[in-house]
Amino acid sequence: MKSVICSAIKSKRILKFYYKGGIRIVEPFCYGISTAGNEVLRAYQIGGYSESGRPVGWKLFRISDISSLTVTNEHFEGNRPGYNPNDKHMVRIYCHV
């Protein structure tokens, strides 16, 4: 999954996947290891389901909870207010925009 996500980040392609109750549509920005030791994806969710009721905004997704991952043919800009490539919630970064 790591190579698929990093490739999507590099080519700035939107991802679609199932996560905790529904389909999420996201712009992937940063992939790495969290301070808790989990593989995570920092992404800007642009649509789909949300447990919190806020389907749009910055989210941190645990890779182990992602399934049915699809890289779409849609591209995104690669710049969003609030994005920090040195994410403080990650101790190691594999790839980022």
- What characteristic shape results from the CA principal axes? globular
User: What is the name of the CATH topology?
Assistant: SH3 type barrels
CATH architecture assignment: Roll
How many distinct domains? 1
Query: Helicity, in percent?
Result: under 10%
Q: How many DSSP-defined strands?
A: 6
Query: Strand percentage, roughly?
Result: over 45%
Stretches where pLDDT is under 50 for at least 5 consecutive residues are none
First-last Cα distance: 17 Å
Order of helices and strands: HEEEEEE
The CATH class is identified as Mainly Beta
Summarize, please.
The chain has 97 residues and is mainly beta.
In words, what does this structure look like?
The chain has 97 residues and is mostly beta strands. The protein has a single domain (2-96), classed as Roll (SH3 type barrels). Helix content is 9%, strand content 55%. It has one helix and six strands. Strands 1, 2, 3, 4, 5 and 6 form a six-stranded antiparallel beta sheet that branches. A hairpin with a 4-residue loop joins β2 and β3 (39-48). The relative contact order is 0.31. The mean pLDDT is 96.
Give the key terms:
single chain; 97 residues; mainly beta; 1 helix; 6 strands; globular
Draw up the topology in text:
Elements: H1 2-10, E1 13-19, E2 22-34, E3 39-48, E4 57-62, E5 66-75, E6 90-96
Antiparallel strand pairs: 1-2, 1-5, 2-3, 2-6, 3-4
